[in-house]
Amino acid sequence: MSWKRTPRTSCAPSFKRVESDLTFGSKDSAGELGLSQEGVKRCSRCRRYKPRAAFASSAAYYRKRQGARGGKPRPGVAAPGGHEYRRRRGGIKPHSERGRTRTASDGLSTACNACRAIEGRARHPQRHHGLAEAERDAMVASQKGLSVICLKAATAHVDHCHETGRVRGVPCFSCDAALGQLKDRPDAIRRAAA
After folding, report:
1. DSSP assignment, residue 44?
2. Helix (H) / strand (E) containing 168
3. How far is CA 90 from the centre of its chain?
4. CA 121 remoteness from chain centre
5. Is residue 78 part of a domain?
């Protein structure tokens, strides 16, 4: 015999109250009174079937709990169906702008695709080169915003040695591509310059 775990749902007195105190022994008896089976839920504490309105919504419960603790819960923002309020980018966005992820229960990422791209670009130097964003900005400022090689174009990429991992500077796109094509070999770079 196997047991199936169900999420804990309760109609405890701390949750919001309902005008009607209807309780049912089974879903069938609720159906006899004209309530649909989808409109009825089983309480995990008293093991009775009650209308869904007898149970608290998670957002309302969260706000109530935060307020009781002295916290400042964020106010809820009403959004039409298929949309949600996005705090990072501001405004109401459709669900279609969120990326997919397998680990989330609803299959959607917590951030929209645009936010994920911006954050990914910002974290790239730290992830790959161990270089914080402030350090990279200081390096660009010391180069006066110009490529470390041609001294003409604006900086674009962090250049590093592939053998040691040491960061060499912040060249422009063309200079970085040239170093890659010449395989970072000083003899090949000298021959190309001659």
Report:
1. T
2. strand 167-169
3. 14
4. 15
5. no
